[in-house]
Structures are given as structure tokens and as C-alpha cells.
Amino acid sequence: MEEPTQQPPGTEQAMQTKPDHGEESYQGSGRLEGKVAVVTGADSGIGKAVAIAYAREGADVLISYLSEDEDAEDTKSWVEKAGRKAVLVRGDLVDPQHCRDVIDRAVREWGRVDVLVSNAAHQMTYESVEEIPDEDWDRTVATNLSAFFHLVKAAVPHMGPGSAIIGSSSVNSDSPSPTLMPYAMTKAGIANMVASLAQLLGPKGIRANSVAPGPIWTPLIPSTMPQEKVEAFGKDTPLGRPGQPAELAPVYVLLASDEASYVSGARVAVTGGRPIL
Questions:
Q1: Quick one: residue 162, left, alpha or beta (phi over 0 = left, psi -120 to 50 = alpha)?
Q2: CATH of the domain at 144
Q3: How far is CA 101 from the centre of its chain?
Q4: Residue 1 belongs to some domain of the structure
Q5: Which residue range is the domain that position 241 belongs to?
Q6: Is 101 a domain residue?
Q7: Cystine design at 40: which of 64, 77, 165, 185 (Cβ 3.0–4.6 Å)?
Q8: Is 183 among the residues known to form the active site?
Q9: How far apart are alpha carbons 171 and 100 in whole angstroms?
Q10: pTM beyond cutoff 0.85
Q11: Which of 26, 54, 65, 183 is an active site residue?
């Protein structure tokens, strides 16, 4: 899988081998009709696939993204082609106030939040503990874990019974890659936080779950991994290949839908066969 090197977090537009977000394949069946969803990191990768699927299932979508304007506009166009409203919010979730602003924008547009998908992530590869910069450790924690907390804290007052919170965890939450230590730690934290949220928010009728993807082909891969790892990416799974973002979307749809009304506190593995205990 030969890919041009990118600066993190990377863009879909610069990828030679484009990920499949379900643009031509996902077919909705009204499972999220009339719902309002906030999806972070929705400009590309898993977040983009989730936004497209949610729109085709009948949800309006707030698309939160860092700075990848062209990718985000493309996601917006797919949501609108599905006949749903799309709102773009650009900015860095490292800032707690921006997390609050994201939720505030959704509330101003629709008056509530029915589904919160905290998916934006930062990762970098390091061969030793000593070479991990302090600032990169802090950015990884702030983007992947602290932002989830700030988004949830801001959203819960605007969520009613039947609402859903979904965190993007990882197979690394259970089987951490040593070269992705900061990232893996935050993904374990997301799974643990979801387990607490499910218990804290259950009395309000709000469900909390996480999805644990395995190796998924997104712009993060060629922008944060050395070329030899990009070329071998996903080949060590039992299915022998990386997953596509479109292959994650149905799980996020299920967890957001009323069909999952008794599913809370779960971590759902979508790993190409790698077990999660």
C-alpha cells in the first residue's frame, strides 16, 4: 500500500488509495429518523463514514473537525445529498471551551443532542519512551480523552431518555501497541470512562457505549506511521487486511438507534478477528 507521506492528522484528499466511507454503498432504513447527532473527527475516516450513515438513516449531523476544510465540505455534501441538515464546526478540541462551543452550536441549531459520537483522535508512532515529547503526550490526552469528557459534560443537560453516547476506543485499549503508547492509553481510558458513564447516566435513560476498531484505513495511518508499517498495515489480522471506515458505520448506527435500547456499557470490537477480552 504505497502512500505519499503526509503531515498529521492527514487528509483524505492527499491519499492515493482512498478509504471507502460508504459513499456508494451504505443504504439507510430510517433507524435514526429525526435524531440530532454530533460527530467529532467527521471530516474523514470513521467519523465521515458515521456521518454519512447517520444522514442516510434520517439524522441531522453536526460535523466537528480540526482544519481539514476540503474533507469536511465533502462530508457535508454527502449528508445534504441524503436530505439531511449538516453543520460544520471547525476548531481544536484540545480547548475545553471549543468542546462546549461544539455542543452549544448543536443546541442552537436543533435544541437538543440525541447522539454524541466522540471520535476525533491524535496519534503518533514512537520507538522509545524517551523520544515522546511532553507536548505530544499532552495533545494526545487532551484530544482523545479530555475532549470526550468535556463534550459529554456539555451535552448531557441537552440529552433526554433514549439518547446515546458513543466513544471511539480501539483494539489498543486491550492489546496496546508499544509504539503507540500515548494513544493506546487514551483508548483504554475511553473504554473505562464509558463503563462509568453507563452507570452514571443510566437513571437518566442515556446509554453509553464504545466501539473498538482494529486497523482501519484512514488518513491517520500514512500521516503518523513509517512507510514500512503503512505497507504492512492490517495484514496481520485474521482477515488479512485493514478494515474500511464503511465497515464500522453499521455498529455506530446500531448503538445510536432505539434498537440498542438495552445496550449500555459495552465495548464492541470491529477488529478483523483480533480478540478483545
A1: left
A2: 3.40.50.720
A3: 18
A4: no
A5: 36-270
A6: yes
A7: 64
A8: yes
A9: 28
A10: yes
A11: 183
